[in-house]
Prior knowledge:
mainly alpha
Amino acid sequence: MRTQGKLGLKGVFLILALWSFMPEINAQFGYGQGFGRGRGGRPGGSVVPQAQSQPEPPKPKTADELVDEAMPNITEVLELNDFEVAVLSAILKKYTQERIEMQILKLSPDKMREGYEKITERQDEELKASLPLEKYEAFVEMQSKGIQESKRLKKKEKRKKKKNKSKE
């Protein structure tokens, strides 16, 4: 005979089965908050999970990208031929890459300034040796004024030349 105070083998299995399904039941009904509702009977949130990832910061441009982006303006201001464009582009890419590498090292401000000055000196020497003197001087002037200011001045000079030609 069976006594009523003891659970049988079937009862133990039943309890274990219910206990093992509790996480799934909780997941279905909102972890005890009641059928997908938050406090006060309001909906608990969207059915679609929200991604909390931060937008990926833009990748820094490479030396090639930086120089290639600036070359059309430089070419326009300095009126370079194809050979001069190739030479100037190669030199600028080389020294821009060195500057980027210095930034990656995160040296002290004094070391950075010193390093940039050395790179600029070597770049100027190489440009002076590779470009015609008037193009080199125009490039140095353009660097001191900035590309946009140099473009503006170049357009102004062209307008003056046109005016002088039309007066003659």
